[in-house]
Design goal:
Its EC number is 1.1.1.1. By secondary structure, this protein is of the alpha/beta class. Helices cover 30% and strands 28% of the residues.
Length: 317
C-alpha cells in the first residue's frame, strides 16, 4: 500500500509499504480519507524530541473508511463503513481495535467523516457545561471553535466568537454566534466583552487556539466563578498563567482533551449521531481536499490558513 512517511522537518514522502494485518480483536480499514489536524503541524515542522523517519501513515488520526479484514474475535462485518480512532491513517489501510471503531449509518453514505475531531468538540462541549442564556466566549474559530459555536448556540447560549480572520468570524455567524470580535487588540476585546455582558464577563470561556495570548485573553474574559475551558492543544512549549487573576475570580479551569477511551468513544458515537441527524452540517468546514502525495501542501495550508481555509482532508484513491 501507499503510506506517507515523515522523512524530516517539512519533508514527507509517499512510500510503498506492506499492508498491515489485523491481530486478535482488531479490524483493518481501507481508508477513504483522513483529516489533517492542527496538532500535526509541530511534529511536521520538527520538534527536539522527534526521530526520523516517522512511522508509515503516522500523524493521521482522523480517518474513516471501510472494514476489509477482521482479526479473531472482532465482532464487525467486512464491508462496514466506519469512523475510527487510529494513529497511522495517512495510508491506504490502517488497523484498530474493534472497540475504537464506530459504524457509520446510511445517512452518512458518500460523505467524508473525520470523526475524531468532531468527537473532540462534542467532549469539550460536555465538559464546558454550557447553559441556556449564558454568555460564552469562544476564542479561535477554526474547526473546533466553529463546531463549539454551533453546539453552544443550539443550547441557547449567547456566543461571542473571537478570531483573527474575517472569514472565521463570518463562519462563526453562520454557526450561530451572536457577537463576533476581531482578535486584534487585547484591551479592546476585553472592553467590548465587558460592555456586552454588563461588566460581568462570561460564565464560560473556551480557548481553542493553543497559544499564549489567547490563553491570557481567556483569563481576562472569564467572570467570577466561571468555567475556563482549555480546548487548544498547547504543545510548542510551557505556558505562563495569571494564577492571581484565576484565584481571585474563583474559576474552574478545565483541560478538555480526553484520554479515557470510553469518553473518547462516547464522543465519537455522539458525533456520528449529531451529523447524521442533521443537527450539525460540517460541510462548510471541509475547505481543501488533497491526494496523499500532496500531504505536505495540506499541512502547509493547515499552518498558514489561506483565505477561507478551515480543515484539509487527505483522500485516498
Amino acid at each position: 500500500m501507499q503510506a506517507a512517511v515523515l522523512q524530516g522537518p517539512g519533508t514527507v514522502s509517499v512510500e510503498q509499504v506492506p499492508v498491515p494485518q489485523p491481530g486478535p480483536g482488531e479490524v483493518r480499514v481501507r481508508i477513504e480519507g483522513c483529516g489533517v489536524c492542527a496538532s500535526n503541524i509541530e511534529p511536521w515542522e520538527g520538534q527536539p524530541w522527534s526521530s526520523w523517519p516517522g512511522a508509515p501513515g503516522g500523524l493521521g488520526h482522523e480517518a474513516w473508511g471501510v472494514v476489509d479484514a477482521i482479526g479473531q474475535g472482532a465482532d464487525l462485518e467486512v464491508g462496514t463503513r466506519v469512523a475510527m480512532l487510529s494513529e497511522r491513517a495517512f495510508a491506504g489501510y490502517d488497523v484498530a481495535p474493534v472497540e475504537k471503531v464506530v459504524p457509520l449509518p446510511p445517512a452518512l453514505d458518500g460523505q467524508p467523516f473525520p470523526g475524531e475531531p468532531i468527537a473532540c468538540a462534542v467532549n469539550i462541549f460536555r465538559r464546558a457545561q454550557i447553559e441556556a442564556g449564558q454568555w460564552v466566549a469562544i476564542i479561535g474559530i477554526g474547526f473546533l471553535g466553529a463546531i463549539l459555536t454551533r453546539l453552544a448556540s443550539e443550547a441557547g447560549a449567547k456566543v461571542i466568537a473571537i478570531s483573527r480572520r474575517e472569514e472565521s468570524l463570518e463562519l462563526a455567524r453562520h454557526y450561530g454566534a451572536e457577537v463576533t470580535i476581531p482578535m486584534i487588540d487585547h484591551y479592546k476585546i476585553i472592553g467590548e466583552v465587558g460592555q456586552r455582558t454588563g461588566g460581568s464577563f462570561c460564565p464560560r470561556v473556551i480557548e481553542a487556539v493553543g497559544k499564549q495570548w489567547p490563553l491570557d485573553l481567556a483569563g481576562e474574559l472569564i467572570g467570577f466563578g466561571g468555567r475556563l475551558v482549555i480546548a487548544g492543544y498547547h504543545q510548542d512549549g510551557p505556558r505562563q498563567v495569571n494564577v492571581q487573576n484565576w484565584n481571585w475570580k474563583g474559576i474552574d479551569v478545565i483541560n478538555a482533551h480526553e484520554r479515557d477511551l470510553a469518553v473518547q468513544m462516547r464522543g465519537l458515537r455522539e458525533a456520528v449521531e449529531l451529523v447524521a441527524s442533521g443537527r450539525l452540517d460540517p460541510t462548510p468546514l471541509y475547505t481543501g481536499q488533497y491526494p496523499l502525495d500532496r500531504l505536505g501542501e495540506a499541512l502547509t495550508a493547515t499552518r498558514d490558513k489561506p483565505g477561507r481555509f478551515v480543515k484539509a482532508l487527505v483522500t485516498m484513491a
